[in-house]
Design goal:
mainly beta, Neuraminidase, five-stranded mixed sheet, four-stranded antiparallel sheet
Length: about 190
């Protein structure tokens, strides 16, 4: 790994900042200009979500896997605006999509986001099942040691004070035949 110097012009990449302030380049990832979420996988590799360039077309996003030598590959593709990711205690991959495809041409007026659990296939993942849909501008995902899932909503383009965190207690136990949960906000 190389240390970033003041004269280095890194356009797109994954960096590691050490406690002493040193910054190391884990990987340059050409072709992926909007990196959003990051997590360490059950294989100890680093995974990042690659949003997509404007306009955000359905299926243009991906999850990238970063190897110790700095190389990377696509671990999951055909995602729409993936903004964060996490792994549960069984090592399954979950991806939070910020928006579904926009019918209006305005990328930030599309339909709401959703949470997807991806299925393992070979050395990567494929889009599996939608667990939650209707999430208003979700921006962060966390899965606790107890497999509870936390999702921040109204993290962008929302009224001041409207943000929050929603907890789901049993999403990791949902079976393939379960219908997605439709998120509905409660009124004050």
């Amino acid at each position: 790994m190389s240390t970033v110097s003041a004269d280095r012009n890194l356009l797109f990449g994954v960096l590691a900042v050490q406690l002493d302030g040193d910054v190391e380049v884990l990987s340059d990832v050409p072709g992926h200009e909007v990196l959003t979420g990051i997590a360490r996988g059950p294989d100890a590799l680093v995974y990042v979500t690659s949003f997509s360039e404007l306009p955000h077309a359905e299926g243009d996003g991906a999850v990238l896997r970063i190897y110790p030598d700095g190389s990377s590959d696509v671990a999951a593709e055909n995602l729409t605006t993936p903004i964060d990711l996490a792994f549960d205690t069984l090592g399954r991959l979950y991806v939070l999509e910020f928006l579904q495809a926009s019918e209006t041409g305005d990328p930030y007026r599309g339909t709401t986001g959703r949470l997807i659990r991806l299925e393992s296939e070979g050395d990567g993942w494929v889009a599996g099942r939608v667990l939650v849909e209707g999430l208003p501008f979700p921006t962060a995902l966390l899965i606790g040691d107890d497999d509870r899932i936390y999702i921040s909503v109204h993290g962008a383009f929302s009224s001041p004070g409207s943000g929050g965190v929603v907890r789901f207690d049993d999403l990791t136990q949902r079976t393939p035949d379960s219908l997605p949960i439709r998120f509905v906000e409660s009124s004050p």
